UniProtKB/TrEMBL annotation, chain A:
<dbReference type="InterPro" id="IPR015943">
    <property type="entry name" value="WD40/YVTN_repeat-like_dom_sf"/>
</dbReference>
<dbReference type="GO" id="GO:0036064">
    <property type="term" value="C:ciliary basal body"/>
</dbReference>
<dbReference type="InterPro" id="IPR049546">
    <property type="entry name" value="WDR54_beta_prop"/>
</dbReference>
<keyword id="KW-0853">WD repeat</keyword>
<dbReference type="GO" id="GO:0005814">
    <property type="term" value="C:centriole"/>
</dbReference>
<protein>
    <submittedName>
        <fullName>WD repeat domain 54</fullName>
    </submittedName>
</protein>
<keyword id="KW-0677">Repeat</keyword>
<dbReference type="GO" id="GO:0060271">
    <property type="term" value="P:cilium assembly"/>
</dbReference>
<dbReference type="Pfam" id="PF21031">
    <property type="entry name" value="WDR54"/>
</dbReference>
UniProtKB/TrEMBL annotation, chain B:
<dbReference type="GO" id="GO:0005886">
    <property type="term" value="C:plasma membrane"/>
</dbReference>
<dbReference type="Pfam" id="PF10188">
    <property type="entry name" value="Oscp1"/>
</dbReference>
<feature type="compositionally biased region" description="Basic and acidic residues">
    <location>
        <begin position="366"/>
        <end position="381"/>
    </location>
</feature>
<dbReference type="GO" id="GO:0005737">
    <property type="term" value="C:cytoplasm"/>
</dbReference>
<dbReference type="InterPro" id="IPR019332">
    <property type="entry name" value="OSCP1"/>
</dbReference>
<feature type="region of interest" description="Disordered">
    <location>
        <begin position="364"/>
        <end position="389"/>
    </location>
</feature>
<protein>
    <submittedName>
        <fullName>Organic solute carrier partner 1a</fullName>
    </submittedName>
</protein>
Length: 336, 389
């Protein structure tokens, strides 16, 4: 169903972090951007669609104007808003927002880091663009920071802090079907496996809270009102976002799931885990009953590699890319 | 291993004699084993220092990940709290071996919480080494209790964060170890083998099942999918208590089965320079951290220079000066150097040499006196070591 393409070499190897690959297609310029995190550096690769040109850039997690500060990066993700695209980077020190090509940092938000380290780690993790003008970022204490993004310029402001989670945020996702009819706009997940479903606005509204089983939910997606959640137990669960009804459960992997992605136009689902396997599934939703059908389509084994990132490269799921811990390449697969 | 001694060391005459005897018997100088009488004090000193209350208290404080440079300094200092001395080349190779072994354990750790089981395997084995020395044994037990206290309440998610941070420390290290290659846990390219078959970790369901439910939670359908692997049910869970069957083999002594095994390590030709060479922007913070750790190691355990003996753990027969010359030659572009730096550790019984060493050990025991370190300044020791970095 898929065959392996030529890999993209990266300057450093990928670190073992959840959702450690972000992909953005720039159709007008026939380019795709990839970001992969290595310790305190974000590797950014720009690849031309004809496969002939690759350029590399590295971003560090730094406070502006502070020469010696550097901290471990937890996540880097592209945020596509109607008016602009931004690259958001979260670390142990704060949250940075760059223009999507990584050229200029437009915003820095410092996290409250204590003078001497405490037993509780401090970091940002979980990044999602929401609706027209919001970017939401999770933090280790469990709060979600909602940033209001103007259509251009750096006048980004912290609009709201949502405090519903008691454990570290692991991942967040917004409704990706493009449908305006869905009530739920955002889902957030934490280290205890708890999920919160939100409606965006001037003030975000909590629609539903789905309890976890004390098992971390490391990756989450929201598609056509269905929450797709991947857990440390290797399971994927499908919940109806607003009601919390569990519609399907898959014993998908033998180890911790690190990444999920959905191709919104075709309903393809990608799951990747520490067990070295990437799996492709197909989802069918029946609107009347809100039931979910899950069909398994394809497996790819990345030998001896604990996978940490897997993303479709386009909305149809025609191609996908994979990163693994200690691997200095982005592996690509295309439909045969 | 060959035994080297300082020229000022009265033991030198004895070891030269031993070396002559060994050669007379047509044995390789490397094929020498260490009898318990020599090993046990070394073991007690190292374990005693490492598990001392001050040092452990310092280690158990929340802190950032160390750099490789700091880690190597701490381990070098630890190794030298006994009468043993390792030359820099030996220490480098030993460090690589330790890092790769630990990387293997953390990488293959089935569930993040099993990091504790690995640590408890380490501690159980150390307990065995010092079981006849009550003072040190007690320190080990105390440390174990403290670790249980600090870590038992962490969630799986927090353990995974810990593991991910440790994996950053090990990133990009692919030194090949012959024992690992032989056991097929490591591939020729230096990467560890990850199996897609075998028991799943405790608490995980065997993959392969898709289930759907109706609005009331009743199962509506069940289907299987091909997993591409061969997974079986989990085995029993290991014990997280002070004593118990840990079940997991990760963290156990890999040499016990292969006690006649040689160990070679070699770098893969394309290995990049480690982060040690990059300027450390957090140098000041790191040095403070290091100073606290060093300070918490008892200075009284540092013997006077005259009573130490140097160990060249690895097969180079040359004196250190000759090694330096060679490195200079290499640096100036000496051709034909092997890509591989091979380290041999051979642990084979040699009765003749063993008797010789027992003699030497006897000399030690009789003449041993507690070194007076009232003059020595902990700070000076540390500064001297820093200058060498």
């Amino acid at each position: 169903m898929y065959h392996k393409e030529k890999s993209i070499q990266i300057k450093n190897s990928a670190s073992a972090l959840y959702n450690n690959l972000s992909v953005m297609r720039i159709a007008p310029r026939r380019l795709t951007y990839f970001t992969v995190v290595h310790a305190n550096v974000v590797n950014m690769i720009t690849a031309s669609w004809d496969g002939l040109n690759y350029s590399h850039r590295q971003l560090q997690s730094k406070e502006p104007n502070v020469a010696t500060s550097t901290s471990l990066i937890m996540q880097a993700a592209f945020c596509a808003l109607p008016s602009r695209d931004l690259l958001v980077v979260t670390s142990q020190k704060g949250i940075q927002m760059y223009e999507s090509d990584g050229s200029i940092m437009v915003y820095w938000h410092a996290l409250d880091t204590p003078e001497t380290p405490t037993a509780q780690a401090v970091f940002g993790r979980g990044i999602s663009a929401v609706r027209e003008n919001f970017i939401c970022v999770g933090v280790s204490a469990g709060a979600i920071l909602v940033f209001d993004i103007p259509s251009k310029g750096s006048n980004i402001t912290l609009s709201e802090i949502l405090e519903e989670h008691n454990e570290s945020i692991t991942d967040m996702a917004s409704e990706c079907s493009g449908s305006q009819e869905c009530i739920a706009d955002l889902v957030s997940a934490d280290d205890g496996g708890n999920l919160c479903v939100w409606k965006s606005g001037e003030e975000f509204q909590l629609l539903n809270k789905i309890s976890g089983f004390d098992m971390s939910c490391s990756s989450v997606k929201l598609w056509k009102g269905t929450v797709v959640a991947g857990y440390g137990t290797g399971q994927i669960r499908f919940y109806e976002a607003v009601t919390g009804i569990l519609h399907a459960e898959v014993n998908a992997h033998a180890r911790w799931i690190y990444s999920l992605d959905i191709a919104p136009f075709s309903g393809l689902l990608l799951s990747a885990a520490e067990d070295s396997l990437v799996r492709v599934w197909h989802l069918t939703l029946t609107p009347e009953t809100n039931s979910v059908e899950v069909a398994h389509l394809h497996n790819e084994c990345v030998t001896d590699t604990q996978i940490c990132g897997a993303k479709f490269c386009d909305g149809d799921g025609y191609a996908f890319a994979v990163t693994g811990y200690d691997l200095s390449e982005i592996i690509r697969y295309t439909q045969s | 291993m060959t035994i080297r001694c300082d020229s000022s060391n009265p033991l030198r005459a004895i070891t030269r004699e031993s070396a002559r005897n060994i050669r007379k018997n047509n044995r390789e100088p490397d094929q020498v084993s260490w009898p318990t009488a020599v090993l046990q004090p070394v073991m007690n000193d190292i374990v005693g220092t490492m598990f001392s209350k001050n040092f452990m208290d310092e280690l158990l404080k929340p802190q950032q990940l160390y750099s490789h440079r700091t880690m190597k300094t701490v381990l070098t200092r630890l190794a030298h709290t006994s009468i043993m001395r390792l030359n820099p080349a030996s220490m480098d190779r030993l460090y690589e071996l330790m890092i790769m072994a630990f990387k293997y354990q953390v990488f293959l750790c089935p569930r993040p919480k099993d990091l504790l089981l690995i640590s408890y395997n380490h501690i159980d084995t150390i307990r065995e080494f010092v079981k006849d020395t009550p003072v040190v044994l007690n320190q080990v037990d105390e440390t174990h209790r403290k670790i249980i206290e600090v870590y038992s309440s962490l969630s799986e998610g927090e353990f995974q964060l810990l593991r991910q941070t440790l994996l950053i420390f090990f990133q990009d290290m692919h030194v090949r170890v012959s024992l690992f290659l032989k056991n097929r846990v490591q591939n020729p390219n230096g990467r560890f083998a990850l199996s897609t078959s075998g028991p799943v970790p405790h608490g995980i369901d065997v993959p392969g099942l898709i289930r759907t439910f109706d609005c009331k939670g009743k199962e509506v359908s069940r289907a299987e999918f091909p997993t591409g692997g061969c997974y079986t049910s989990p085995i029993r869970e290991g014990s997280f208590l002070l004593h118990g069957d840990r079940v997991s083999a990760l963290g156990l002594n890999m040499y016990t089965v292969n006690h006649l095994e040689e160990t070679h390590t070699s770098k893969t030709p394309t290995v990049k320079q480690q982060a040690d060479d990059t300027p450390n922007l957090l140098a000041k913070e790191e040095l403070n951290l290091l100073a606290r750790l060093m300070g918490s190691m008892k200075a009284e355990n540092m013997p006077k220079a005259e009573t130490v003996f140097r160990i060249n753990l690895f097969t180079t027969d040359r004196e250190e000066e000759e090694e330096e010359e060679e490195e200079q030659a290499r640096a100036s572009g000496g051709a034909g150097q092997s890509l591989y730096e091979v380290i041999n550790i051979q642990a084979m019984q040699d009765e003749q040499a063993a008797t010789e060493l027992a003699l030497i050990a006897g000399q030690f025991a009789k003449g041993e006196e507690k070194p007076e370190n009232s003059e020595s300044n902990k700070g000076d020791d540390l500064l001297a070591m820093m200058d060498d970095l």
